[in-house]
């Protein structure tokens, strides 16, 4: 009988690690518990980049003088020396007197045509703190004097807006006086202001300046002061809108504006509005806020200043409501997963790959934060991950949600290593061989051979016995004769 040698071939087990970031912070906007005049707003914690309040942030709005922030960006980044002398021509002021009611009598910084002692620095201060409309045109004219003039500068403004990431913004002028093609959104205005906040501290400083002395001209025989129109930062006199924690950046208001009727005449009247983008800091917390669409006047026609009121209300709400809170750390138990063929372990404990702290309401119950767990590690038919497992191995993802908004996404990792049980592995391989069809076929064939051999041997022995009995009878007969 031949000896049959069976050789078992074992394959290596491969683990695929998920190729996602270890942690991805996101935002969850909250609803302020204050009444507001503005139709849209967007508020961000600058320390974490967390959006804490938003309404209609992607809706079209007219930025008014907030347009001047983009004018300042393009001017600052394309002027090597702020002492650059500026030429003031009629081209810079003509549009304010050409019959468009939206531009007639525009607010200015008192600059005179033909003035020769004006610098880029003067124009930036006049543009941003006095909101002088002529300053925007003077800047555009001088920087693009030989390259297409003010229209070419406006093209640069639109190009820069796209570079910053604005997708719903178009500028039609340098100053923000009403034009159909001069529009943005609260979110895009935030992107513009955030760009200045992060990259152009000199511009931030200008917007936070209360007073600046302009050079004399024919309208002002002596150097004269211009003053910031942002009431949030003006601690002068009896100003009810001064907010000690506020700083920069820019207001943008229109008392009223007109659009053309079917005959092309400027007869269609629209009520005015007030916008502002600002920042505020208190107790180590820093916020940026954009508010848009507050009515310019109340029902009696009195100046409402709703944009200032809303800004103060939202800042106070944020400072009293939010704090940095730890949601979980690297030792927080999140989930477990069954382990197959583990050495002394049948469960792997999963923990977050990183700690997570974020800005949350001080009185928020952490249990309302929902956990969305996804196991990405490959499982077998027993819904288990096959050992070995290394400590820190990515096993899945964790997403934290609050009121339907994603707060954070991170990897889930194994908290400890789990070795492969060699005994269980060997037994599993042996059992797997027994389950193979070809093995069962061989066993069946062998059984048939054994049974056939037994039957043949039995038949053979019976034949031999029968033959021997026959010979014995013949021998007895011969002996009798």
Would you kindly provide a written description of the structure presented here, covering whatever features stand out?
- The chain has 481 residues and is of the alpha+beta class.
- The protein has 3 domains: 293 residues, Beta-lactamase; 92 residues, D-Ala-D-Ala carboxypeptidase, C-terminal domain (Peptidoglycan synthesis regulatory factor (PBP3), Domain 2), CATH 2.60.410; 45 residues.
- 29% of the residues lie in helices and 25% in strands.
- It is built from 9 helices and 16 strands.
- The strands form 4 sheets. Strands 1, 10, 11, 13, 14, 15 and 16 form a 7-stranded mixed β-sheet that branches. A 5-stranded antiparallel β-sheet has the order 3-2-8-7-6, with helices on both faces.
- Strand 7 and strand 8 form a beta hairpin.
- Helix 2 packs antiparallel against helix 3.
- The longest helix is centred in the C-terminal third of the chain and has 44 residues.
- The relative contact order is 0.13.
Radius of gyration: 41 Å
The share of residues in helices is 25-40%
Strand coverage percent? 15-25%
CATH homolog superfamily of the largest domain: DD-peptidase/beta-lactamase superfamily
| Spatial shape | elongated
Q: Based on DSSP secondary structure assignment, what is the total number of beta strands?
A: 16
Please report the distance between the alpha carbons of the first and last residues. Answer: 49 Å
Coarse structural class: alpha+beta
Number of helices: 9
Main sheet attributes: strand count, strand direction, barrel closure = 7 strands, mixed
In round numbers, the mean pLDDT is 90
H/E element sequence: EEEHHHHHHEEEEEHEEEEEEEEHH
CATH architecture of the largest domain: 3-Layer(aba) Sandwich
């Amino acid at each position: 009988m031949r000896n049959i040698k069976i050789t078992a071939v074992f394959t290596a087990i491969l683990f695929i690690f998920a190729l996602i970031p270890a942690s991805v912070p996101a935002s969850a906007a909250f609803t302020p518990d204050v009444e507001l005049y503005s139709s849209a707003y967007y508020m961000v914690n600058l320390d974490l980049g967390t959006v804490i309040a938003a309404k209609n942030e992607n809706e079209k709005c007219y930025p008014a003088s907030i347009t001047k922030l983009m004018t300042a960006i393009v001017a600052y980044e394309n002027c090597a020396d702020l002492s650059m002398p500026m030429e003031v021509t009629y081209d810079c002021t003509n549009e304010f007197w050409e019959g468009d009611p939206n531009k007639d009598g525009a607010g200015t910084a008192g600059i005179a045509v033909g003035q020769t002692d004006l610098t880029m620095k003067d124009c930036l201060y006049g543009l941003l703190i006095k909101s002088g409309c002529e300053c925007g045109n003077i800047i555009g004219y001088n920087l693009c004097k030989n390259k297409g003039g003010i229209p070419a500068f406006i093209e640069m403004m639109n190009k820069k807006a796209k570079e910053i990431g604005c997708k719903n913004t178009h500028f039609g002028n340098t100053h923000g006086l009403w034009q159909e093609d001069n529009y943005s959104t609260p979110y895009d205005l935030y992107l513009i202001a955030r760009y200045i906040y992060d990259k152009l501290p000199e511009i931030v400083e200008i917007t936070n300046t209360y007073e600046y002395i302009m050079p004399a001209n024919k309208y002002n025989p002596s150097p004269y002061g211009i003053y910031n129109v942002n009431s949030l930062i003006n601690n002068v006199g009896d100003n009810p809108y001064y907010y000690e924690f506020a700083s920069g950046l820019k207001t943008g208001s229109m008392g009223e504006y007109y659009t053309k009727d079917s005959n092309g005449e400027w007869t269609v009247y629209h009520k005015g509005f007030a916008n502002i983008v600002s920042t505020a800091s208190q107790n180590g917390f820093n916020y940026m806020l954009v508010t848009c669409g507050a009515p310019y006047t109340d029902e009696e026609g009195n100046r409402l200043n709703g944009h200032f009121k809303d800004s103060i209300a939202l800042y106070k709400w944020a400072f009293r409501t939010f704090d940095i809170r730890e949601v979980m750390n690297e030792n927080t138990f999140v989930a477990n997963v069954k382990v197959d063929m583990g050495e002394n372990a049948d469960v792997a404990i999963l923990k977050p790959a990183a700690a997570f702290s974020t800005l949350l309401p001080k009185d928020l119950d952490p249990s309302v934060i929902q956990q969305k767990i996804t196991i990405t590690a490959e499982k077998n038919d027993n819904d288990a991950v096959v050992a070995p497992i290394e400590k820190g191995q990515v096993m899945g993802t964790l997403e934290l949600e609050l009121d339907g908004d994603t707060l954070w996404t991170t990897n889930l990792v194994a908290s400890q290593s789990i070795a492969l049980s060699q005994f269980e592995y060997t037994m599993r391989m042996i059992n797997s061989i027994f389950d193979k069809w070809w093995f069962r076929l061989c066993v069946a064939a062998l059984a048939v051979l054994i049974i056939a051999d037994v039957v043949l041997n039995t038949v053979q022995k019976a034949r031999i016995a029968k033959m021997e009995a026959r010979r014995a009878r013949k021998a007895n007969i011969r002996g009798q004769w």
